[in-house]
């Protein structure tokens, strides 16, 4: 994961340096950015600082995303289409954060000690989680588009069964672009470039176009919305989608820009190798940390931008704490959560 092999000055080495590559063949001698490189270029973040930041993300992100998954299983959320995709995002974030402690230890010890096979597995998990997230955002945008543009026929298409099938298909489909380049026997520079274009640029453009179409419909064709109260509700739903997507782009854009710059200037030699290497080395760790931080930011967005989610989470925490303090058998506080209703639906983000 994030292998950075030696890059001699003045030579063009194919397949020895990359971002988000699973070249683990030099995991004992090739560090992941915690040391100063031989060409004199130091990293913005030291190994100890990077390890501390990684562990901080894990400590915040894992419990927060697990809470999101629990809330998505509560009634009425578990019977909502949108909650399926939100749960998909939370599941991908938990999976990504679960392997982050291994990279924190690598930064701390300045060496990968867990073996080549585990390195490859962690690389695959990282990319698989990323693609699952971006594909889930795309599916969520399509779901919002159907709900807003075709409100009458939407219930026929937006069913829980179909949403769950799509969610499973997203996990399976995300596995294909996560396959390491050496298995596909393709050029690693071209592989990295294509992954950034197909796995990030195009999905983000697609989501942007869909969101723009939703905004257009809400602004210029309000008469197509069945009720007056639906317009602000759909707007709040759109705000949540746009906020999550914008934060996702902000967190992952530097990472993929570095991947594209690295691939292009390595493959076509538009910049001197030493200059391109300095750009890559000095900013890689910061871009990687920013990308990982997206996994612990998402639950915060759900809580602050989604009032309905926040209310159900507060109620769950209050009842759970009450059970712990009183020592009573609180079987009623389970995933059925029958007392939670849609009485806040007019003031919250619709999840259906």
What does this structure look like?
This is G-protein coupled receptors family 1 profile domain-containing protein. There is one protein chain. This protein is mainly α. The chain has a single domain, classed as Rhodopsin 7-helix transmembrane proteins (Rhopdopsin 7-helix transmembrane proteins), CATH 1.20.1070. The longest helix has 39 residues. The protein starts with 46 loop residues before the first helix and ends in a 26-residue tail after the last helix. 39% of the residues are buried.
DSSP summary, beta strand count: 0
CATH H-level superfamily title: Rhodopsin 7-helix transmembrane proteins
Total of helices: 11
From the alpha-carbon coordinates, what is the Rg to the nearest angstrom?
A: 22 Å
Count of discrete structural domains: 1
- Average pLDDT works out at 72
Regarding quaternary structure, how should these chains be classified?
single chain
Instruction: Determine the fraction of residues in helical runs and give it as a percent range.
Output: 55-70%
Domain G-protein coupled receptors family 1 profile: 64-302
Subcellular location: Cell membrane
GO biological process, one term: neuropeptide signaling pathway
GO molecular function: G protein-coupled receptor activity; neuropeptide binding
Brief descriptors of the model:
single chain; 352 residues; mainly alpha; Rhopdopsin 7-helix transmembrane proteins; 67% helix; disordered N terminus; transducer; transmembrane helix; G-protein coupled receptor; cell membrane
């Amino acid at each position: 994961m994030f292998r950075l092999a030696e890059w001699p000055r003045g030579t063009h080495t194919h397949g020895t340096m990359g971002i988000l590559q699973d070249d683990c063949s030099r995991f004992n001698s090739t560090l992941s950015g915690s040391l100063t490189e031989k060409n004199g270029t130091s990293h913005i973040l030291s190994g100890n600082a990077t390890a501390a930041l990684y562990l901080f993300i894990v400590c915040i992100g894992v419990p927060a995303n697990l809470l999101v998954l629990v809330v998505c299983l509560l009634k009425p959320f578990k019977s909502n289409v949108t909650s399926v995709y939100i749960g998909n995002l939370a599941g991908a974030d938990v999976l990504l954060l679960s392997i982050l402690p291994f990279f924190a230890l690598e930064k701390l010890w300045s060496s990968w000690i867990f073996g080549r096979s585990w390195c490859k597995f962690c690389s695959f998990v990282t990319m698989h989680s990323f693609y699952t997230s971006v594909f889930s955002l795309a599916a969520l945008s399509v779901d919002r588009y159907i709900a807003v543009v075709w409100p009458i026929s939407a219930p026929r298409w937006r069913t829980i069964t179909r949403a769950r099938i799509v969610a499973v298909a997203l996990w399976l489909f995300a596995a294909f672009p996560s396959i390491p380049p050496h298995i596909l026997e393709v050029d690693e520079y071209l592989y990295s470039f294509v992954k950034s274009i197909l796995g990030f640029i195009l999905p983000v453009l697609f989501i942007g176009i869909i969101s723009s179409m939703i905004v257009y419909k809400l602004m210029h064709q309000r008469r197509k919305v069945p009720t007056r109260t639906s317009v602000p509700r759909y707007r709040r739903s759109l705000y949540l989608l746009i906020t999550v997507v914008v934060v996702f782009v902000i967190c992952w854009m530097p990472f993929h820009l570095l991947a594209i710059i690295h691939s292009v200037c390595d493959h076509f030699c538009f910049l001197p190798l030493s200059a391109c290497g300095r750009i890559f080395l000095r900013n890689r760790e910061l871009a990687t940390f920013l990308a990982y931080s997206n996994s612990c930011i998402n639950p915060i967005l759900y809580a602050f931008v989604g009032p309905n989610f926040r209310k159900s989470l507060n109620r769950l925490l209050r009842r759970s704490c009450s059970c712990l303090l009183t020592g009573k058998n609180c079987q009623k506080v389970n995933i059925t959560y029958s007392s939670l209703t849609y009485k806040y639906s007019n003031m919250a983000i619709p999840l259906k």
